[in-house]
Every structure is written in structure tokens, then in C-alpha cells.
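Cross-posting from the chemistry board since nobody answered there.

I work mostly on the small-molecule side, so proteins are not my area. We synthesized pyridoxal-5'-phosphate and want a rough idea of how it might sit in this target. Sequence and SMILES are below. Is it possible to get a predicted 3D structure of the two together?
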Amino acid sequence: MKKATACVHSGNANHNPAHGLNTPIYTSSAFGYLDTAENIYPRYYNTPNQEVVINKLCALEQGEAGLLFGSGMAAISTTMLALLQSGDHVVLQRDLYGGTHHLVTTELGRAGISYTLVDEPTVANLEAALQTSTKLVYIETPSNPLLKITNITEVSDWAQQNQIISIIDNTFASPINQNPITLGVDVVIHSGTKYLGGHSDLCFGAVITSQKLRDRIHATAINLGGSVNAATCALIERSLKTLSLRVKQQNANAQAIAEFLQQHPGVEKVYYPGLPDHDGHEIAQQQMQGFGGMLSFEPAVDGSDGAEQLMRQLKIITPAISLGGVESLICAPAKTSHIKLSPEERQQVGVSDELLRISVGIEDTEDLLEDLKQALAATVAAQLA
Ligand SMILES: *Cc1c(COP(=O)(O)O)cnc(C)c1O
């Protein structure tokens, strides 16, 4: 099955006595055990509704097995705690999702786990960070908010050579645009809250991997207890049916917006993997099937106030945190994801006060371009004069 077909048909359960097309919602937290192969319980991650969703995600990511969690952070923290123990070392790319960065810097040390953050996960930088106790390498590509591209195969090959488990946070790309398991990565993690849910109304996470690693993560997941209930699973299942459709429109809209912004005299810089002059464009072309719905740009406005004025002029694109939904959202990373960094640190990682990030939705392209055009005209006029 190709992806759009897999979104609709893969994983669907066939245990429906009334022959309804959709999976019934099993509201039970108590299941009979005399005639089942294993004991079923929500926190054992094996209820029918959990399994339908996980099977669909495995088909989309081409993984053997997986687990569904109550949030992206539950997926990330459980995976790390399952695969690491006191005395171990982990190498991570520095450009991490803020919550992951906070998890690593506040929790790992307390568990006796050390870590090294590398600026760019090239083989040379990974090699320099490698210790005899290194057990994991963890990357995110495209990264937030500058859409930096990491060469996935380079990292997974290096991990295999050194017998280290490789993990990728594939949230920004979604399984429609990037399938890291086919590129040799061991564990794929998603914040399903974003593209998989896609309507800004669900919070969940997922891990897709081999059966062997799934079983290792599962053992800890039962102890940590970050499972999802059946009603949410049914909404996730419905959301996944339109994932391919949504992401394709988001890709197309983002490409059009990036190209529009790049030629606009009131915009100084655009960050989007689909632009030929974006750093890493060629690698993105090799490892992605679409360039995604996330982009950032620097308008010719003055500081945070100028960026805010521009956002307030927009009529369709909505200033809000989070991403991946059907509606286009905009935010200033300096005031949201990177607010805890000092101005110097922000400068170091390339997040200026003027930088704006758009999570492109599925609206009509022309309406989004028109919205940006009028907002830029109202705010960068002084700079253009
Ligand atoms: C949102 C996000 C997370 C965390 O997911 P939650 O569902 O909010 O726990 C992790 N990684 C990335 C890239 C994200 O965007």
C-alpha cells in the first residue's frame, strides 16, 4: 500500500460484529482474561483501540512494532529511561525541541546518565562526543525553528558501526514526508499532538521501532504508565485517515509561502528546506518525500515589537503556540520556544527577535499569500521607503 491508502486502510481492526466500517470504541479498563493470549489493560498498551492506531503508524513508518503514549514527552522520556541506565552516556543534537532539552538537562543527571550536546550531528562531531559508555544518539530533522537538516543515513550508519541505538524525533516531517526507519534509524518518535492529530485538539505521542526494542521500551512504559484512553485512540484513528491529504496540502502551501516571502523586499531571510539555497536542501531532497509545512522568516521589522505588530496585522494566520494543525499558526520563537534562553544564547543559536515561524495549514494558498502580503505592506513600509 502507498501512504494515502495506508492512512485509510492499514491497521483497521476486523473484530466488529455489526460490520461497521470504523473500529468500535472499547470503553473497558477491565477485560476478561480466561480466553485471551495476554492480559489486556490500558496501561499495558494493548487494548484494541491502541493496537489499531499503532498498526496504522507502523505501516506508515515501516516499523515492526510501536507504542502509543499520552503525550510526545511521555514517548520521549519513557524511551530514554527504558534504554538508558546509571553510568550510560547519550549524544544529542543541540537543536532539540525545548521540552526534550529540558528533560535531558533536568532529569538525566539525576538518574546518573551523562550527555553531550553536539552543534551539528556530523560524523566528525559525533566521533568527538563518543565515549565508551555512549548508548544512544538522538536527532531531530528538520529542526525547530530554523529547519536545519541532519543527514539521517550518516547518523544511523555511524550508530550501527558503534553499536549505539539511534533515535529520531520525526514530528516536524511527519511519516508522509520522512521515514527514518528505511534510512537505518532504530527508533522513531512522534509528538502526535502535531501532524498526526492535525486538528489542534489532541495530545499524544508514539514510538515506532523493531519488535525487540519495542519490548524493551514496553517493560518500562508499563511502570511509567503514560498510556492513552480508547476515546482518544478513536479520534487519532480518524485523524490518521486524512494525514496524507493534509500534509500534501501543507507541503504545497509552505513551498508557495516560502517562495513568496523569499522574493518579497520586506523579508530578509527565509528558512525552508524546499528552497534551493536552504542549507541542507540537497540532503532534504534525498531523505524527504516532501519538505514539510514548517517555515521561518525574518521580516524587515524592528525587534520583538515589530514582529508582534506584523503578527497582529494577520487576519487568517493566527498567532498561537504549537503546530501541525489544519489552521495556519505563527509565533515568534524568541517569545515562545526560546524564551528561556538569554539574548546571547538566542543569538548563538540563530534565533533573532524578529524571527517568525509559521506552521502552515491546509487553507487555500492564495488566501495565505494575500494575508502575508497585506500584513507585510502594513508593517515593513517604513523599511521599504
Ligand atoms: C511538541 C513536540 C514534542 C512534545 O510533544 P507533546 O505532545 O507536547 O508532549 C516533542 N518534539 C517535537 C519536535 C515537538 O514539536
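Reply from a structural biologist on the board:
Welcome over. Reading the output above for you: The mean pLDDT is 96. Residues 243-384 form a domain with the Aspartate Aminotransferase, domain 1 fold (CATH 3.90.1150.10). Happy to explain the C-alpha cell format if needed.
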